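Dear colleagues,

As part of the handover before I leave the project, I'm documenting each prediction I ran so the next person doesn't have to rerun anything. This entry is a single chain, and its sequence is reproduced below.
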Amino acid sequence: MTGNILIVDALVTNRIILRVKLGVACYAMTQAETMAQALDIARNDQPDLIITGMSLPDGPACALCARLQADPLCRDIPVLVIAPSNDSGPRMQALHAGAAEVMTRPMDEGLLLARIRSLLRARSSAEDRRLHDAATRTLGFCEPEHRYIAPARVLLITSGDDHGRMLKHRLTSLRAGLRIETAPPAEALRPTIAGPQPDLYLLAPNPDAPDADLRLIADLRARPDSRNATICVLLPAHHCTAAAMALDLGAAEVLTTPLDSDEAVLRLSRQLERKRQADRLRQSTQSGLTMAMTDPLTGLHNRRYADQEIRQIAKAAYIAGSNFAVMLLDLDRFKLVNDTYGHAVGDHVLTSVAHVMRSGARPQDLLARIGGEEFLMVLPDTTLQAAHHAADRLRRAIASTPVPLPGRSDQIGITASVGVALGHVHIWTERQPTQRLIDDADRALRGAKRQGRNCVMIGHSAA
């Protein structure tokens, strides 16, 4: 994994040692001696990670973190602070100021590199989320955030009932707003947990043989139900190799036991907030994708989506050795409705027709509004006779469903003309197969209009 890392330390020997350790992993590195230099480089070069000593000539690391957090250009750069001793006071100050991690000298090289890889992955994922968020906001797909935050659901995975009960009691006493359940490693992957999936998996591996339990992280990351959850691991401080393995397997955080209450609350709360942000973005992105392929008035698919989906239906028909049908439906004399009653009533008519189409469609059928008053319906795995019957049934349903005028007692009678084309099994092998089929259905539709409207016509190639 490549990355641009800024090393900040007043002592040149510390910077050299870090350059040697990180050079093995081929990171690009720049150096700074003071906080002022570091801030200037951070603004101009936008490094992927900053590694800083706890004390700098012009201020402590917590001041550097606070300054970076206050700068919109730099607040998303993760900061790894290297402390000279395992003193909880300065460590908590740095974490509260915005440091992503604090490590203590002397550092285990394997754990240092694993922690750097983890921070760079988190930075890359956060950047992807910001880009997606910016895109959805620009396109107007962003939905307002919900203010209510439900208590986070935590599954504590631990071997041994006594150890599990002790850890659960300890975590409950943290008052971090967690709903904690326990399960042994052998049960953690089974879909027997009632209700929503856990927001956070907290793995406490067997301290005598942690490797086997840590492999559970890879399984959790690979499964759809748990891949988006946060995974944290509890390990004694001297288990550096196991901690490095946990981070490389996909754990977001490694908490040192015995737990420091304030630090555990801060770290878990931070991870859960990141998970909530990622969940909101996924929901927003999914809503945006739905909106991008949906006609906002009728709720049917739009033309962009339909054009792509017809190709997939044609391909599936070729593979399965079956036929499919395309219908184009156009409302008769719809302009007269708009001119007489106004566009609001016209919109009401379109939504009513869309409802009739949904009521008569099979689950596998494709429905789309592709123009002002023109609709598309694609029927996979069908025959010409069945398609003609479905088209005539839809035509009769529309004609027999007058549309009530909003705020009035009278109704509007609506009819539709339909053109049908059959996609035979080998159409996928032709050049521009779906466009030829739509053109065929469109010619049949125009023929239905010339025939007197309110009727179904079959395309010549289908006939």
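The CA atoms of residues 7 and 31 lie 5 Å apart. The first strand starts at residue 4 and ends at 8.

All the best with the project,
I.
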